[in-house]
Design brief:
With about 140 residues, the chain is of the alpha/beta class. The chain has five helices and five strands. The chain has helices at about 15-30, 55-75, 95-105, 120-125, 125-135; strands at about 5-10, 35-40, 85-90, 110, 140. Strands 3-2-1-4-5 form a five-stranded parallel beta sheet, sandwiched between helices. The chain is globular and about 45 Å long.
């Protein structure tokens, strides 16, 4: 951990922003970098109509462009300067987070939890929990 980059998956939510503050603090302490990762989930249709009006490749390209814009706005929203490496990919979030962990040889993953409980937790896949169970490095889940 002390010499390896911190992987910080983000969905651009307020909770993800909170998790990144923890990642920045740890990165400063250990003098390591941070890799911000956003995974564009598999497209299933236009965000307004949910009808696929363009080819899947065009939709993925548009979603990745929008994600890149959001990523830059997200990085710009921090009060302090910190050099982030950023990655955007598409696919299943857990698979892509774990693949990125392996590819960059992450020393730690810091990510947000959506804090679901009860029936909502049972019915919705919990990305943070699955990453924590399958990751090879330590995982800090921030609420």
């Amino acid at each position: 951990m002390r010499t390896q980059q911190i992987l910080c998956p983000t969905d651009f939510s307020e909770t993800a922003s909170h998790a990144i503050s923890y990642a920045i603090e740890m990165a400063n302490f250990y003098n390591v970098g941070i890799c911000l990762l956003h995974v564009v989930d598999k497209p299933f249709g236009d965000k307004y109509t949910r009808v696929l009006a363009v080819t899947p490749d065009e939709l993925i390209e548009r979603m990745e462009r929008e994600a890149a814009d959001k990523m830059q706005q997200f990085i710009d929203s921090f009060d302090i300067y910190f050099p982030f490496e950023s990655k955007i990919c598409h696919g299943h979030p857990v698979e892509k987070i774990l693949a990125t962990e392996k590819n960059i040889n992450a020393g730690m993953i810091v990510m947000a939890s959506h804090g679901r409980t009860g029936l909502e937790h049972f019915l919705n896949a919990n990305t943070a929990e699955e990453v924590a169970n399958k990751a090879k490095c330590p995982v800090l889940i921030v609420k």
